[in-house]
Every structure is written in C-alpha cells, then in structure tokens.
Design a protein that fits this description.
This protein is an alpha+beta fold and 416 residues long. The chain folds into 4 domains: 48 residues; 45 residues; 160 residues, Nucleotidyltransferase, domain 5 (2-Layer Sandwich); 76 residues. The chain contains 12 helices and 15 strands. The strands form 4 sheets. Strands 1, 2, 3, 4, 5 and 6 form a 6-stranded mixed sheet that branches. Helix 4 packs across helix 5 and helix 5 packs across helix 6.
C-alpha cells in the first residue's frame, strides 16, 4: 500500500524549527544544520519570533530600506501638481517644465510610472491603421512664409449655442495666430465675418506668401478657380491660396494635429456659457504658444521659433497687377463681364473686381481670365463657359513675376 507524499510548506518548516528550538533537546548548531540554515539565521529567526510572534515567520519584503536613485519627494509632489494643471500633457512635456523650474527631472519612463502609480494616466488604445504620410503642398522654410487655416468641427456649449472655432497656424513655427470661436444658431458662419478676422490678422501680423486650406467654404468653392470672396481677398493682397486634395487631410497634418489637441482641451467637455468658452479658447492659445513645448521643435515652444516678421500691410488693397499681355476688364456687381458686345457670366467672387483677359492663340477663341496673377480659368467665347485652369498654370503665373527669393520654392513637388 503506497503512502501519499508529505507536503510541507516553508511556514510549517519554520514553525517546527521554532518548536524544536524552544524544547532544547538538540544542540542548536545541530538543529540549524538539519534545517539547512546557518546559526546566525537560526538565532535571528528566534529573536524575531520572540518580538513579533507568528507573523515573524512569514516572508518579509525584500525591498531595500533605502534607494539612492529614488525620485525626491519634492520632485514627485511638483510633478503631480503640474499634471493636475495640465492633465493631457505627457512625460516629455512635464519633464521640460520641471527643468525650466530648476528641478532635476527624472527619466520620462520614471515620470510615466509615477503618473501610473497615482492613477493619473490611462493606457491609450493602439491604432491599427496609420494614415499614409504625404509631403506638404509647400515647404515652410521660414516663419510667416506658409500659414494654414481651417474650421475645427463644431460643438455646442452648455447653453445650446453652436461654436465653430477658426484657426490659423504658421506651419514653420507651429505658432497659433488665430483661435477664434464663432457662436451661432443652426445657420453657418457668414463669409463676411470670416473676412473681418483675416483683415484684423493681416493688420496685426502682416501677410504670408501662402495660405493652405481644404476645399470647403469659405476657403474654396466649386466655381472656376475655386474662388470665394475670402480667397479673392487673399489674392488681391498677393497671397497664394493652396488647397489640399479632397479626402487627404494628411496634407494639412500639422493643423489637423493641432485640432486634436484643441478638441481635447476646450471641447471635452464644452464650457457652460459662451463667455467661459471664449475664455477657454483664449487661454488655450496663450498656453499653446508660450508654455506647451513641441516635440517637432526640439521641445521648444512656438513663440521661441516665431521670430521672422511677415510682410507688413497698411490696410489698403493694392491695385491689381496682371500679366503684361492681359487686357483689363471690370466685372459688374451682378457678376457679368462684357466682351465685344456680349455679356459673359463670371464667378460671383469676382463681382465688382477688375480682371485681366489674355487671348489664347489656339484658333478656338479662348481667353485666360486672371485675378491679379491668379489664373481663374479659360473662357470659351463661343460657348460662353469657363473651364478650370491647370493647377500648375495658376501657381507659375503667381510666382513668375520676377520676385527676389532667397531660395527656390517647391509647390506640389515642382520647383518654382
């Protein structure tokens, strides 16, 4: 008949050792040898048992009593305070703030562990598919050369008003030039209100060379040349409008990334009143430009990089300058253009504007239509319709006028 194996735990062995030690039937050196421990360990275990009782026989913590590399308590306390002030900032940005305050920042991995230990971080869901990366429409080699603009998706404040934030950002320095909220009912923002914001911006900040936008209103339309009153206003000031391809927001990725941060900071949750929402937009703009370090800028803030001034503007719209071969004509307030006794319909963005007509020597009776040096399209005189102009033709005409440039400009992969 077989007997089962006897199972003995560490706790049972220690308890049996203490019992035999107390009975003093064997020499203690022999007893320690039988249990496979040293005399020093045996005496230490007995002394602990006398002081603490049975709890002394349980396994204790192996953690060192002191760690010279432990983050100082004052640094941890300050780190938690900064996280409370900026709940969406990660370890890299928090480390930068600690260094600016004169404290020795721990490693970013250590900061992440501290935040996790205090319940201040959440594991992010891993994205399965990354958007394909595409080069920008134009390389922003200096501040105030290329600006990007768009409306961030609308949301509603606590009182029911709809908020449509308009943003304008310098693509080189990531400096946020405009973060303006329009508060409306169910209707859309009027184009005249948007033009007023850009008018004030150009007076304060000057004029860039390019403004990148999407193909939605009020930046573009389905009219020839994609013109709107706003983009026509830009062209009259010598600014080249560039539009990303439909369905490719990654071509304006820097502004899209800004909108993700903006949404997290001011729209989740939205504020209770319009006044509070306006204050949050203003506060976000101040923090984003002057306090929040940017990884793409070497952990500098946008205000530290936004130094080159833009071309100043005095508020006066200059007279239009056309290609030398252009014949100037004025579009009526109703959008009509008279040529050789016949009236042709023009885009309403050109209403009451002076345009230039350049005959095309192809025997088909065509005229190129220019707003300043922007090619709006091709007018077919026989049919009275306007065809869209080739994209490169628009850009070349805008930039070919003998401008002095320190370096070539690359637009859509073409050096101009």
């Amino acid at each position: 008949m077989s007997m089962p194996w006897t199972v003995s735990s560490v706790m049972q062995e220690r308890l049996r050792f203490i019992e035999e030690w107390a009975e003093e039937r064997k020499p203690r050196s022999l007893l320690c040898r039988e249990y496979g421990i040293s005399r020093k360990t045996g005496y230490a275990l007995w002394e602990r048992f006398r002081r603490e009782g049975l709890s002394a026989l349980e396994d204790g913590s192996r953690r060192p009593a002191d760690c010279p590399h432990r983050t100082p308590p004052d640094v941890v306390e300050r780190l938690l305070a900064l996280r409370g002030r900026h709940p969406l900032w990660g370890p890299k940005k928090l480390a930068r703030l600690l260094e600016e305050e004169g404290l020795r920042s721990p490693a970013c991995s250590t900061i992440a562990e501290i935040l996790k230990r205090h319940g201040l971080s959440r594991p992010q869901r891993r994205r399965r598919h990354e958007l394909p990366c595409s080069p920008p429409l134009v390389e922003a080699t200096a501040p105030n050369m290329v600006w990007s603009t768009d409306f961030k998706g609308h949301f509603y404040v606590g009182t029911g008003e709809r908020c449509d934030p308009l943003t304008v950002m310098d693509l080189s320095s990531r400096y946020l030039l405009v973060c303006h909220g329009y508060f409306t009912g169910p209707g859309k923002v009027r184009q005249e209100e948007v033009i007023d914001v850009y008018h004030d911006l150009f007076l304060r900040r000057g004029l860039p060379r390019f403004i990148v936008s999407d193909n939605g209103g009020p930046f573009a339309s389905a009219a020839p040349g994609g013109l709107t009153k706003l983009s026509a206003f830009w062209i009259r000031l010598g600014i080249t409008p560039l539009r990303i391809e439909s369905g490719k927001p990654q071509q304006n990725g820097r502004l899209e990334r800004l909108h993700r941060t903006l949404k997290s900071e001011v729209a989740r949750p939205a504020r209770r009143t319009v006044g509070e929402q306006k204050a949050s937009l203003k506060s976000f703009m101040e923090e984003y430009n002057n306090l929040r370090p940017h990884e793409a800028l070497g952990m500098e803030t946008p205000s530290q990089r936004h130094h080159d001034p833009a071309t100043p503007w005095d508020g006066i719209i200059p007279d239009p300058v056309f290609p030398e071969e252009a014949i100037p004509r004025r579009v009526t307030r109703a959008g009509g253009l008279k040529w050789h006794g016949r009236m042709y319909r023009m885009p309403m963005a050109l209403a009451n504007q002076e345009v230039g007509l350049v005959p095309v020597d192809d025997g088909q009776g065509r005229m190129l239509i220019y707003l300043c040096r922007y090619c709006v399209g091709t007018l077919e005189l026989s049919r009275g319709r306007i065809l869209q102009a080739p994209r490169q033709a628009q850009l070349l005409r805008l930039l070919e006028a003998g401008e002095e440039r320190a370096s070539p400009v690359v637009v859509d992969g073409v050096t101009l």
